[in-house]
Amino acid sequence: MARRLVVIGAPSSAGSYAAGQESAPRVLRERGLIDKLRAAGRDVVDDGDGPFQVWKPDREHPRSQNLGQVIASIEAVTRQVGAAIDAGCDALVIGGNCTIALGAVSALSSRFADPGLLYLDRHFDLNTPSTTSDGALDWMGLAHALAVPGSIPELQAALARIPLLTPARLHLLGVDPDATTEGERRAGSDLQLVWRTGDELAQHPVSETQRALARLAPGPIAVHLDVDVLDFTDAPLAEDTGGRNSGPSLDALAEALDTACHDPSVRVLTVGELNPSRSAGEPIVLDRFIRTLAQAFSVV
Length: 300
Ligand SMILES: [Mn+2]
Known about the structure:
Oligomer: single chain
Radius of gyration: 17 Å
Number of helices: 11
Bound molecules: manganese (II) ion
Largest sheet: 8 strands, parallel
CATH superfamily: Ureohydrolase domain
Number of strands: 8
Order of helices and strands: EHHEHEHEHHEHEHHEHEH
Number of domains: 1
Shape: globular
CATH topology: Arginase, Chain A
CATH architecture: 3-Layer(aba) Sandwich
Helix content: 25-40%
Strand content: 5-15%
Mean pLDDT: 97
Strand order of the largest sheet: 2-1-3-8-7-4-5-6
Structural class: alpha/beta
């Protein structure tokens, strides 16, 4: 018997480069996400949204923009995912920025000894305000989870533990080495993180996911998907348009998500950085993505 699935929205672009991702939960619901999940056999409860936050420049804090909003969004995800877990349910969180993954792991960390995180993203997200000048917190999340030097104390303090994760409890799939900063490469090497490239994920979506799950066993495991891991030419969903003609297709990613979400140790999937305006010229890609989620959560 599949566990009940709680759908949670995190409509925020506060940690982004520009507005857009805040509308992802609304757009996916309007295009039938909840009904498609139910049609796949799941008992679904829609728990609604956390705070609605639209990015604007934070000129007072240019290197860590909109920190207070980012923390409030993470805390809302932590509360909502925690309530779902306490009720014996699984959770699907639609972001929002990739920092929502910290909320999911925080919720698990308050309840379980040793949760793991499978992170599907083109980026390491290991930046701090000293390694990138752009001040977008959405690619600083894992640095804060791992307590990389230079992390912002207020953001760390919002998490269940410091560090929230150890390298042994983190597995990254889909990284584009050309999309990493020097500071990220240094942190990743210092911490000896385990990661695979987008090409490896594209070629072996099932076996790479199985290897990650085995490494993070017994869990529980949170899975995070930044849609920028996808080949943007195949599936233009992400805020970041840099992934043209590299990384997995949506069909290949579907195999990875299918494998992950059908593993009983996986309790949460967070989806970040989906900007619906990217697919305005071909909105059917949003329906393909909803079908991918419904298949991943289907009762088999
Ligand atoms: Mn990313």
